[in-house]
């Protein structure tokens, strides 16, 4: 039984170590853990987990193995040296419920550094905000997982349930990191993922497909443009056709629970484009990359089939267009966190105790690794984390006091979910 005195001791322990927690988070942000370059940040997290006496596991992702899973994302890079890190706490006598504390260490590219007001990798704290690429998404959450555990122990307790601390890669592009951990048989009774969610709980989120479309043309000299076929012009026609699918799916939002009141839940993003070989040649090719969202309950395969049909129809138009799509990353379905689980009820209580207000939930048109645990392990995945601004943008930042409160809430969750014993 967790008493009010237990809660007080745990929350005070978070406060006592909070400056150390911020310093560790800053150090983590200073490692530019871009895709395939996560190694030094994972080294830091491995060392931090090992120093806490956790049972350590580190492994390279296996693209071939991941390709056998229906939720695996397409792999277009080498996974040599691309590793997950998991630290496991095992109580002397396991009598409590088990828990996964998950977070991703990979970050999106910073973009032009001159567009930042300071270096993306410096991690200063200014007026209550920590800045830097990955500060919010989601290195503050990764650190909060560890320091919440520390607070329980510093308060004089040992959790009575098994806990897996997961630092995964590939969340920003395939979801293969968390999926690889699941396929390695890391499972638990509940999962917390402290993504930057403005002190709220994610109720539902979309699935995501990544793909590249290649449009081919017929090169000629510009003086004979009418006899050629401009692949770049045709690429824009192809984009327009995909926009029609996007609007069709958005018009159907009323049929999808939790998405009815969102203005535009399905977004197709054309993230990059390249084409042509010479300014004085009608371009023979154009390629563009797409990130497309889909509703929970729609399989990735069904959405992919409809997109393929859209592109195939272009070949029968008045001006035939050859547009071929290939998968390049995410091939993931969306999910809904069904209300009523014991885990959610407990999080509501810990949030109320720390914040003095009810826990709100919301639906996001973004991707989250919660789908891995929800869809493939039938495990409640609580995606719940601190207030942040400009994630994936310039001057990304996370609220310091929000991080403190989230850490307290997770610490109380650990104590009550796993149970505690007094330390000798």
From TrEMBL:
InterPro entries: ArgE/DapE (IPR010182), Bact_exopeptidase_dim_dom (IPR036264), Peptidase_M20 (IPR002933), Peptidase_M20_dimer (IPR011650), Peptidase_M20A (IPR050072), YodQ-like (IPR033687). Pfam families: M20_dimer, Peptidase_M20. Residues 204-315 form the Peptidase M20 dimerisation domain. Its cofactor is Co(2+); Zn(2+). GO terms for molecular function: hydrolase activity; metal ion binding. The keyword Hydrolase applies. Keywords: Cobalt, Hydrolase, Metal-binding, Zinc. Belongs to the peptidase M20A family. This is ArgE/DapE family deacylase. It comes from Arthrobacter nitrophenolicus.
